[in-house]
């Protein structure tokens, strides 16, 4: 009997090792694979600059002026996500910025229904914020709105403010990635790219106007494509949709296919589903279930929580990757107390940690490949460049920045030192205020 148990244990251990080795092979991305992915993305970006309805949309922002870092003044920025944040942004010149901000909740009834109710709430929030700012000076010296299609949000918000006699002029609206790029560009003039790696992912960068062919008037001369003063525009790439039309461009596993198939938007935002916080935990959960099915984890045990889609969050992966206790106690707590798995062995917990590492590392290397596509497209490495990155995954997931940097080093060797990566916080609100500033300058110049 004893020899039979030993043989069974040995067989189980061999199966565990085989399953892990297969998984490593599935999630490993060599430098050559990354370079191929970057090349595919660059091709799709080129196509998106020429025409609409492409794999990677490449949306023009119509922001064509770089901040100089010397602008001064006070502007209001409004950021609309799951809540409303309103910023008073003071530009001091020399790349210096100070802010005051307030947060206002967006209740569920405002997220569904007519856009008019949401606009009215934004106007009331701005009014409340102005009262808050005045008081401070005195003291201390997931949206599904309707009727919004083809509507100009700037005009709608301006109308809402006027209706309440609120003395604010709405100058511009911009995407969050565009806002982050503007915010970092004010501080670092060589900022080429801003990207977000959070619940979702996106990027915006400065592109030469001559290459944005779908925005050019064929009856007018082409803008200059060379020289020191080349006209540029910020492009919102929407790179999360990379792979939607050509899924073979991305290294999807059966776990990724399962996540995509069972998502609320199958076939949409394929790249985002490989790298962003909303999906990383779900990829890992599918692997855990597969390993349990094969009896190489948990002795085949399950729990209702582990069976529930999106129950295994990226924050759990973050804690597991950070777990350096000898018995992996944090991992044990997450799996047994939170995910309600009946029991785990130390070997189970080691495998769980390795699964999280593989999923997280692949995500970081894919983000690096996407960044590289923009760098190569602009041929920016020779002169050096700055990249702004923000988002909960990049900022808080263990080793994510290091993994991105390591992958970029695989691309460029010692020349990677010409790339400076910084983090922009509150970039959306600050960027919105800067967009308003630039729009105001442009309007004043027009009527001089």
Account of the protein in words:
The longest helix has 32 residues, at 346-377. This protein folds into two domains: 19-63 and 187-427, Hexokinase, domain 1, CATH 3.40.367; 72-171, ATPase, nucleotide binding domain (Nucleotidyltransferase, domain 5, 2-Layer Sandwich). Strands 1-9-8-7-10-11 form a six-stranded mixed β-sheet. By secondary structure, the chain is an alpha/beta fold. The N and C termini lie far apart (95 Å). Strand 5 (112-114), helix 4 (115-140) and strand 6 form a beta-alpha-beta unit. The protein is globular. It has helices at residues 2-27, 31-50, 108-111, 115-140, 153-163, 176-187, 254-261, 272-275, 277-293, 304-307, 314-322, 329-338, 346-377, 392-396, 400-412, 427-446, and strands at residues 59-60, 72-80, 83-93, 96-105, 112-114, 144-146, 191-197, 201-208, 232-236, 385-390, 419-423.
Helix/sheet category: alpha/beta
Name of the level-1 CATH class of the largest domain: Alpha Beta
CATH architecture of the largest domain: 3-Layer(aba) Sandwich
Model regions low in confidence, pLDDT < 50 over at least 5 residues: 1-8, 136-141
Coarse morphology: globular
How many DSSP helices? 16
Rg for CA atoms: 25 Å
Mean pLDDT: 88
Largest sheet: 6 strands, mixed
Q: Strands across the major sheet, in which order?
A: 1-9-8-7-10-11
Roughly what fraction of the amino acids lie in strands?
A: 15-25%
Order of helices and strands: HHEEEEHEHEHHEEEHHHHHHHEHHEH
Query: What is the number of E strands?
Result: 11
């Amino acid at each position: 009997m004893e020899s039979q148990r030993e043989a069974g244990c040995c067989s189980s251990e061999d199966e565990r090792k085989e399953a892990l080795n297969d998984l490593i092979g599935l999630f490993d991305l060599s430098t050559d694979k990354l370079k191929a992915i970057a090349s595919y993305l660059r091709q799709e970006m080129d196509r998106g600059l020429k025409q609409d309805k492409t794999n990677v949309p490449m949306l023009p922002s119509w922001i064509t002026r770089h901040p100089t870092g010397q602008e001064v003044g006070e502007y209001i920025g409004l950021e609309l996500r799951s809540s409303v944040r309103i910023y008073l942004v003071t530009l001091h010149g020399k790349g210096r910025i100070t802010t005051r901000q307030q947060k206002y909740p967006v209740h569920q009834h405002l997220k569904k229904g007519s856009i008019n109710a949401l606009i009215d709430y934004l106007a009331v929030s701005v009014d409340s914020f102005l009262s808050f700012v005045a008081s401070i000076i005195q003291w201390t010296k997931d949206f599904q709105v309707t009727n919004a299609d083809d509507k100009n949000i700037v005009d709608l918000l301006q109308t809402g403010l006027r209706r309440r006699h609120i003395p604010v002029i709405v100058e511009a609206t911009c995407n969050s990635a565009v806002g982050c790029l503007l915010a970092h560009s004010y501080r670092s003039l060589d900022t080429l790219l801003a990207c977000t790696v959070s619940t979702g992912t996106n990027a915006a960068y400065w592109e030469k106007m001559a290459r944005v062919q779908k925005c050019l008037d064929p009856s007018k001369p082409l803008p200059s494509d060379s020289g020191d003063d080349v006209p540029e525009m910020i492009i919102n790439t929407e790179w999360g949709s990379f792979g939607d039309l050509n899924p073979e461009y991305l290294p999807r596993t059966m776990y990724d296919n399962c996540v995509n198939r069972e998502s609320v938007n199958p076939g949409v935002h394929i790249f985002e589903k490989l790298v962003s916080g909303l999906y990383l935990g779900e990829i890992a959960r599918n692997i855990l279930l597969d390993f349990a099915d094969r009896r190489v984890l948990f002795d085949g045990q399950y729990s209702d929580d582990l069976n529930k889609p999106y129950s295994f969050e990226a924050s759990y992966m973050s804690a597991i990757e950070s777990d350096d206790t000898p018995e992996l106690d944090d991992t044990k707590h997450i799996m047994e107390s939170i995910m309600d798995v009946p029991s785990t062995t130390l070997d189970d917990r080691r495998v769980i940690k390795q699964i999280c590492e593989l999923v997280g590392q692949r995500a970081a290397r894919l983000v690096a490949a996407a960044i590289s596509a923009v760098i190569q497209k602009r041929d920016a490495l020779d002169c050096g460049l700055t990249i702004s990155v923000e988002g909960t995954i990049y900022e808080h997931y263990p080793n994510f920045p290091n993994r991105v940097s390591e992958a970029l080093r695989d691309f460029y060797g010692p020349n990677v030192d010409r790339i400076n990566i910084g983090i922009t916080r509150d970039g959306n609100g600050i960027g919105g205020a800067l967009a308003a500033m630039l729009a105001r300058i442009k309007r004043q110049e027009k009527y001089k």
